[in-house]
């Protein structure tokens, strides 16, 4: 009586917006398409369509290009899909179905550094 049912929530790989040290960044091993153990299988930018969200999208695309990874960066604006990730602050960056940054516009070099800290 009085106890609430615990709900399952998605735990971000790193909710520090990329400001943690390497030892704190969790290496992503979950697989959304079977390629996660070898590398990045999918990258998504979650946003409402604002200037900041577009800026993160461009930064992510540039970082991927610089790294030589052939993955398309998906831009998700559907609020229902965004809510499924548990994101409350946008823009957000999702790598292999794990939220790795939210509420911050990362520069291309910051996205690249975050991906390297995550083991890519």
Explain what the structure shows:
The chain has 120 residues and is an alpha+beta fold. It is globular and about 30 Å long. A four-stranded mixed sheet has the order 2-1-3-4. The chain is built from three helices and four strands. The protein has a domain at 34-108: Glutaredoxin.
Number of helices: 3
Biggest beta sheet attributes:
4 strands, mixed
Number of strands: 4
For this structure, what is the CATH class of the domain at 34-108?
Answer: Alpha Beta
The largest sheet has its strands arranged as: 2-1-3-4
> Could you give the distance between the termini?
47 Å
- CATH topology of the domain at 34-108, by name, is Glutaredoxin
Work out the helicity level: 25-40%
| Average pLDDT, all residues | 78
Comma- or semicolon-separated keywords:
3 helices; single chain; alpha+beta; 4 strands; 4-stranded mixed sheet; 120 residues; disordered N terminus; globular; Glutaredoxin
